[in-house]
Amino acid sequence: SKIIHQSFFMFPTTPEEITNIVNDLKDGKSPGFDNITAFMIKGILPNILNVLTYLFNRSFQQGEFPQCLKTAIVIPIHKKGDTDCVSNYRPISLLSIFSKLLEK
Fold first, then answer.
1. For the packed helices 38-62 and 15-24, what is the interaxial angle rounded to 10 degrees?
2. 62-85 pLDDT, tens per residue?
3. DSSP helix, strand, coil percent of the chain (3-state; round to 5)
């Protein structure tokens, strides 16, 4: 039996890349469980940019997505029809802005 090792390499992120991603975030979106919005991140980015870069690169190096960023608030959104019928709803997940940044 052959053993197949699967791996891939991710280049480290840079402060410039994170800045571009943050600048592309839409203001006005609902925050996740931490109540931190894109608008807030944009305002403090110069103060946290090096820390974010370090943390994101550590996550890539270790191949782990931080457990605390896996938490979402799930809200049912009514699609159409009878509001008493569960199948007429779809879920939306409100994720932490940091989770969204790390995924990009």
1. 140
2. 888 888 888 899 999 999 999 999
3. 45, 15, 40
